[in-house]
Amino acid sequence: MNNLRMRREKGSGFTIIEVVIASIILAIVVTGIAAFFMHIIKMSDQMDDQSRAMEICREGIETLRTLDVVAMSDGWQPASTIEGFTRAVWVDTPYSEYPEAKHVRCRVIWMGAAGADSISLSTIL
After folding, report:
1. pLDDT digit string (tens) for 108-124?
2. How many CB atoms lie within 10 A of CB 83?
3. pTM assigned to the model
4. Where in the sequence is the domain holding 69, given as residue range(s)?
């Protein structure tokens, strides 16, 4: 026992127990940080997908603004697939007294990292 104290007082280094405990604590901290960054990357991918879907939805509505809406038939317009995103547009005449007013609903569906997701926009033209 005296021999152990003398070695410690001379500053000969750490014991194997101290090294193992420090390694375990370091592994737990690094694992937590890695999990946090993986979560941030996943959320960033989801936000990128949502932003792109919103842009595709807006493009669909803006395209309809350039067309003759009064001549459009009510119901689903032909769907289109853009870069893995499927856009579907629904046109409806909500007010019989205003046949030139059309309710347009655009929905974009895609398969993201978390599974199937969708976003919708609607407006009156």
Report:
1. 999 987 789 999 999 99
2. 7
3. 0.72
4. 2-124
